[in-house]
Design a protein that fits this description.
Helix content is 43%, strand content 14%. The strands form two sheets. It has a seven-stranded parallel β-sheet. Strands 5-6 form a two-stranded antiparallel ribbon. It is an alpha/beta fold and 284 residues long. It has two domains: 32 residues; 245 residues, Metal-dependent hydrolases (TIM Barrel, Alpha-Beta Barrel). About 6% of the residues have low confidence. The protein contains eleven helices and nine strands. The structure holds zinc ion. Zinc ion binds next to loops.
Length: 284
């Protein structure tokens, strides 16, 4: 009896260890699942739930080829819009270069985007050439200030901030002017602030200033980009825009060959409870 009991206990404990090991390996997949796979799964489930996860702000930069971008699209489940930078000092500065670029890209299965640079872009390109593209976007990172100085907000030595409050007032007015006068579909790098002001983002983007931008977007039927490179705009800004009925796009604005997985955009979809209908859709 005692021997039998000991014998049974031994096999019972071996069985328990076996069950525990199997259970653990099923419920502890961390040793095999990497962060990229988690993001890919998240993108897949969003696409299946009716979202069309598209990065409308990709560039062929840092040696990235269109074939590599398409391969990344296949593995990530992200659709792409590839944009060319057009304006003074950029690779495309006139109509013939713009249409030549378009012809070289038009057969690839991506959206064709035009990134309009600086405020001079609308005088450099004809409406017919611009219309070749699926969409046009711009940001408010380049403008002339009250003193006539050309500011480029992402360049440390080309930003002139005499007073942060004055700078913000001027910037918001610039954004309103751009959104109401330039023929664009998406406002990208939205709410970007220069390096020296970024730590004060929440303080400088007051409700009143955010509301002015939201109103300009809504009145002109322009979508707002949620940018994964700069992690802007803030969730508060996005919620304010959503409440006003503004549509959103996701964008990376990659400067090198790494396209990533729209991490910040995915985070904001969750945090701001964005639905498929909150997103702008390319009509072409
Ligand atoms: Zn860009």
């Amino acid at each position: 009896m005692f021997i039998n009991k000991a014998f049974n206990m031994k096999y019972l404990s071996i069985f328990s260890i076996l069950v525990f090991t199997l259970f653990s390996s099923c419920n502890n997949p961390s040793k095999t699942v990497n962060p990229e796979e988690i993001l890919i799964q998240r993108i897949d489930s969003l696409n299946k739930a009716g979202y069309d996860i598209t990065d409308y702000h990709a560039h062929l930069k840092g040696g990235l080829t269109i074939e590599e971008l398409l391969e990344h699209s296949r593995t990530s489940g992200i659709r792409y819009g590839v944009a060319v930078n057009c304006g003074v000092g950029f690779p495309v500065q006139n109509d013939s270069a713009l249409s030549a670029y378009y012809r070289s890209m038009k057969d690839y299965p991506v959206y064709q985007g035009m990134q309009a640079e600086g405020r001079e872009w609308s005088t450099l390109f004809s409406a017919d050439s611009v219309a070749l593209f699926d969409y046009v976007f711009t940001d408010a990172m380049t403008f002339f200030d009250k003193e006539g100085r050309r500011n480029r907000l992402w360049m440390k030595d080309e930003v002139f901030i005499d007073d942060p409050e004055d700078f913000m007032e001027y910037l918001v007015t610039q954004i309103e002017t751009i959104l109401s006068t330039e023929k664009i579909d998406i406002y990208v790098n939205s709410s970007f602030l220069p390096d020296t002001l970024q730590s004060k983002y929440n303080e400088l983007w007051t409700n009143e200033r955010m509301q002015r931008v939201v109103t300009a977007l809504k009145n002109n039927n322009i979508a707002m980009e949620i940018n994964s490179r700069y992690k802007i705009p803030s969730a508060k800004f996005i919620k304010l825009a959503k409440a006003a009925g503004v549509k959103f796009t996701l964008g990376t604005n990659n400067t090198d060959a790494n396209l990533g997985y729209l991490e910040y955009g995915l985070e904001m979809i969750r945090e701001c409870d964005l639905k498929p209908e909150d997103f702008w859709k390319c009509k072409k």
